[in-house]
Amino acid sequence: MMRAWFRVSPGRHPLAPILLSALWLATVANVPLWRQLAQMPELQDVRGLAFAVGFGVVLFLLHVTILSLLAWRWSLKPVLTLFFVSAAAGAYFMLSYGVVIDSTMMMNVLQTDPREAGDLLNWRMLAVLVLLGVLPSAVVWRCDVRPLGFIRRISTQLGVALLALAVMLGVLLLIFQDFSSVMRNHTQVRYLINPLNSFYAIGMVATKSKRIESGVLTPLGLDARLVVARPGDKPPLIVLVLGETARAASFGINGYPRQTTPRLARESVVTLRNAWSCGTSTAVSLPCMYSGLGRADYDTRKANTENLMDVLYRAGLAVLWIDNQSGCKGVCDRVPNLNTASMQVPEFCEAGECFDEVMLQQVSRRIAELPAERRARGVVVVMHQMGSHGPAYFKRTPQRFKQFLPECQSSFLQECDQAQVVNTYDNTILYTDHFLSQTIQWLKTAEKTAATAMVYVSDHGESLGESNLYLHGLPYSAAPALQKQVPWITWLSPSIERQRSVSQRCLQAKEDTRVSHDNYFHSVLGLVGVLTEVYRADLDIYAGCSAA
């Protein structure tokens, strides 16, 4: 019965599967696009309906043109299968999480490790892949396509491609005014054209990576040196906690109605409530904030440069990167580093994943293993959190920190009430609060021999169902503030305040001043005490708060 169901009449003209596939891709596979268009207020009248019809025709003819150029005798079925499966995957993620597929999102996908990928797998994803990808592919592979002569096939498919292109341009001219308005005012629409958005994103990532990586790594801060220590000064011990997926709006000390940061509220910390990220994903924000280029220049860079870690190391400091995530995105490649996957402390690790506290368990021993001559000058430790990484927020917190209940116990967030999603996420912030407090306590114990400080900044924020958006990774221009506004929390010991002449009262007065990841590179250099020509005092938030 199954074989009979899939059987298609033999001897189909090669254009038949191309036209039917183009129709399928333009309609069923693009449900996220049509849903977005249906919600636009300017498309709710007769003119809007006419535009939608015209746009559908354009989308159909665009696929006809592309498939006619790609799907030849031997490539027909593989090409159509690639389009179906890619479209199914894209449709699932766009429908499930409200994301769009652009180069940033594709970079996230390509850099996802098996652990992260496992959090995204569920039966709904399988069902969508089967219905939108596997089934139409099976129909295509069961289809007997009539063989055509070489000349006839070329002339037929090129002729169809040219005809489709001509008609598409004609329809575009008819709807151009509305088309340009939609594309200008709703930039996310261009990232919803499925699966062409995915192919374009892959091409952009590949070409940009090849262009950038082919060049030599540009040195940075070749003149880096430490400030001359005064009599009685202790070497700095600075912990840089790199948060993951933490949004400023969910922190109690930033005004969130829930007290998600009770321990930090009891510490003498300064929070900058108006801090903004370099990007909406780790793959962009992490290397950007450590590059020193700033958001405006990072994306247009022609070559990769050394980063903050290189400059700190060149200045003679002992540097250590501890990663409880999927990697440092190349930032820590040239300095001592370790991943918690190799630690496996039973108390904090299970099923191949560790809670963030594991980074504190061996930090003293790991520092002691660094060269003594460097440790004598000062130590900088970066702790890269698992933090609030989604969608499986419930996996990020030990049982004793599940204060806000009930939790969403699924990685498919739409099957939970938004309140449950928020509860689960808030528990991750509560655990981050605990981890930061523990870090501060450890730094206090080191205060006898070092001038200590902690700077916590997240890479990007997160959407938790607001406006039907989940997770992060939207194009920066279209992303909501919740994905871009991040916590920036500083704890300074009396020693570091005195040595760097930083006034905590002054910093507190800056709590609502707009800052961004652009300030991070220069602020860390200033706090640690590194002098170099690439350092800019005007971007150092701590330099602007001299106690003098």
Relevant terms:
548 residues; alpha/beta; Alkaline Phosphatase, subunit A; 2 domains; 8-stranded mixed beta sheet; two-stranded antiparallel ribbon; 22 helices; 14 strands
Gist of the model:
The protein has helices at 2-6, 15-26, 31-38, 46-70, 76-97, 103-110, 114-120, 123-142, 150-174, 176-185, 196-213, 262-265, 282-291, 295-298, 308-314, 358-361, 363-368, 372-375, 418-445, 494-500, 504-509, 520-528; strands at residues 225-226, 236-243, 269-276, 318-323, 337-339, 349-350, 353-354, 379-384, 451-458, 463-464, 470-471, 485-492, 515-516, 530-531. It is of the alpha/beta class and 548 residues long.
Describe this structure in words.
The chain is of the alpha/beta class. The chain has two domains: 2-211, no CATH class; 235-545, Alkaline Phosphatase, subunit A (3-Layer(aba) Sandwich), CATH 3.40.720. 45% of the residues lie in helices and 11% in strands. The protein contains 22 helices and 14 strands. The chain has helices spanning 2-6, 15-26, 31-38, 46-70, 76-97, 103-110, 114-120, 123-142, 150-174, 176-185, 196-213, 262-265, 282-291, 295-298, 308-314, 358-361, 363-368, 372-375, 418-445, 494-500, 504-509, 520-528; strands spanning 225-226, 236-243, 269-276, 318-323, 337-339, 349-350, 353-354, 379-384, 451-458, 463-464, 470-471, 485-492, 515-516, 530-531. An eight-stranded mixed beta sheet has the order 5-4-8-2-9-12-3-13, with helices on both faces. Helix 4 (46-70) packs antiparallel against helix 9, helix 5 packs antiparallel against helix 8 and helix 6 (103-110) crosses helix 11. It is elongated and about 90 Å long. The protein starts with a helix and ends in a 17-residue tail after the last strand. Mean pLDDT is 88; it is low at 1-9.
